[in-house]
Amino acid sequence: MNNIPANTVFIGHHRLNLPSCHSTNDECALLLQQGKAFEGTLISTDHQTAGRGQRGNQWESAANQNLTFSVVLLPTFLRADEQFLLSMAVAVGVREGLARLDHPALDPAALSVKWPNDIYYQDQKLGGLLLENTVRQVSLQHTIAGIGLNVNQANFAVAKATSLFLLTGTAWDREEVLQSVVQGVERQYLQLRNGQRDTLRAHYLRHLYRYQEVHRFRETDGRTFAGEVVGVSPQGHLVIREETQLRRFGMKEIEFLD
User: Fold this and answer.
1) pLDDT tens digits, residue range 124-136?
2) What is the span of the domain harbouring residue 113?
3) Which of 94, 106, 107, 197 has the lowest CB atom count within 10 Å?
């Protein structure tokens, strides 16, 4: 897995693949500190031993089975309070890349973005993202977008996880999946850089998990309630209608219940 992704403008043109590492995000951060990373630098690994997910969770990934990689972006065109737009672009791009994979058992309509940054197939987790931003004054300076996708793993400790292999019964070429996903991420990022924010928001909502559906949630104090997902605020808060009240929740303030 050392090829430069085909048909990209800049992502992956500077690429490193490591047999094993603790975290590809950490490896990108080290290159940035050393002045050796550029926009589009991509670091992938065959075995990530200490990958991080949202909420500080560890990302489970079997060696040589999945995709774990990080991309360096320089979104200086975004203010610090607009950083969720970048999360949207990366999530929509990953979903788009997966939707372009050609297999009769894969239904693109079943792929969704579960707020804030998980990739779902129907009601099972297929992947996750972790964006780490550095801010200078009022603007984003650089972002490390970590992406983990379950490709050929057959067994998971968590019940709601799945993989392309489990969904299709086919062993996938991880490089083929990477190429498609990277192209999708770059396409969405360039559109965001070109100012197509409304298009991005519409695309994100169109593929938002449980959008305009009533679901059960649990707050940090243990209270559960039923509400309708009606959107995401510009700051990245999930907006839920509970009866007649609109409520906004940050990433660590609420969780979906089965």
Assistant:
1) 999 999 999 999 9
2) 15-206
3) 107
